[in-house]
């Protein structure tokens, strides 16, 4: 009998262990039907005591397993139950409970039944008071909040914050742990001023914590309690490489256009961060190709021996009516997860003093936990950190031992200087010592980019990374933070080191890049992918590559296998756009073209190739190969009007258009945000995750900052 009890106990423990092992991070955003974020929504796992709560941007995360029932509850809304399936992202739209809303009015001193509220409360028919956060970041140091229902929703009309009876500032409010919040009330009536004075003229957000932990504190004591750091460095101290946008070129004098593919999309998420924070976007932070490539397009899978398919389309330019747009799309082969090679990864983590902000190391650790969830038993991970010095805090550990890896991440703390060179050396050394032939050998660098490598910084770093590239190790760069963010260094690392680069502005972006798109982000199916296009001068008067300024190559680099180029991941898409001025079209963007040249004449032979717009060539290497393989395709001289173009053509053109506007391009005639939104809406399809809808919102939001 005793042995049976022991066996039962062991089985119960085993079931519990298996259940825990299956848990993963589920995250998402909770909004109302107007797509406004809902703060303070309680998320519970039905039948358990586990719960979470949305922050002021409506974002949440919770540990759950497949089959768990998540219950979303909010005052004035119908509760909603959603079961966890295969996706790690669950976004929820809650509907108003009209019966309940008719009986409740929110006032400055609490929540009252409608029958008990006096005439001093100003009520707006058909409108429900909402808190609207203008930032989309999970860790926002100072979000802009406006109370919907006031006469103006300008970001300047910020409400008064009251925390446990203590007047507070936005950055103090943003530091409160959502789990400590007991109640959030909103006052927008005239009685607010009689209670809190003229400072309450834009409304009041009243926050009560569970144990009144901030009651009777002074402003300085509140800062200390909430660990408020000094005001962040101004965005002007962020570092971006300057560049000049591509100009129009004639195929008679420049017959070949050559460039490396770019699967990075850090520029888009960084721009999103600026716009969500109500800041002007620095011109040099805008890399149009990275904006376009943030979004996925519906290109077909390859049907031959090559690892990607080639897809082209020609239509009208939406910003210059007489011009054309050529879209070139690559679709990487989708390799099943079980067939992907084993991974040998080293997390290289910046734990210097500049990383202590909430949107840096704390967000970084949560991000890498998402990646850890994707690891298989045959994968292994080591962790190297650097600050004043570099060190290994976790030796190579099986992907099956997730608890050990996560514990190592949880124990990391920020402090010290930023000697990144030693960290890079050690990380590559550990990868080399554990190198898997035909495997995925990769360093994953996570930092704000504010580090030193040598006496001349960027040039020394470039030399170091180019040298490490020869070892056959790939590089992924994850950027975090704001204020002192060094985009220029991150871009150099990715461009020069067989790498890719993402800017993680919130936990949802971490879920997208490190979870949902794990295969494309972490497993290369082709490397050193180059594109070379030759335009037919009979059809093309001039052309220009939109974006890719930092990825352009010399014509002779195309066949030179020693020249580095971009990598393509499993199921990744890459899109490039050219703007074309057809022959016979008068244009203000054309320089005076020389004629009657004796030695540079490039006329085609007698058949004139009238049916061809261009010939496009691709070169790529296998992930462990050293010799490139060439592909050739002819682009027909066929164009469709923009109204009949594919959704992919419309949406990618709209994104490029917005990028050119943000860069204040002198080569676009029409800079209307309304027209950009209109085109993007026409091309908005296949948007299950809502990223395209979010882009449309960003363009609309940008009107007040541009």
Describe the structure.
This protein is 24% helix and 26% strand. The protein has 706 residues and is of the alpha+beta class. The strands form eight sheets. Strands 16, 25, 27, 28, 30 and 31 form a six-stranded antiparallel beta sheet that branches. Strands 21-20-19-22-23-24 form a six-stranded mixed beta sheet, sandwiched between helices. Helix 8 (361-373) runs antiparallel to helix 9 (402-410), helix 8 (361-373) runs parallel beside helix 13 and helix 15 runs antiparallel to helix 16 (673-682). The protein starts with a helix and ends with a helix.
Instruction: Find the count of extended strands (DSSP E, 2+ residues).
Output: 31
First and last CA, distance: 77 Å
Average pLDDT over all residues: 82
Structural class category: alpha+beta
Q: Globular, elongated, flat, extended or rod-shaped: what is the shape?
A: globular
Range of strand content: 25-35%
Rg over C-alpha atoms, rounded to the nearest angstrom: 28 Å
Low-confidence stretches: 1-21, 99-143, 148-156, 229-235
Secondary structure: helix percent: 10-25%
Q: Can you summarize the main beta sheet? A: 6 strands, antiparallel
Q: Number of helical runs?
A: 17
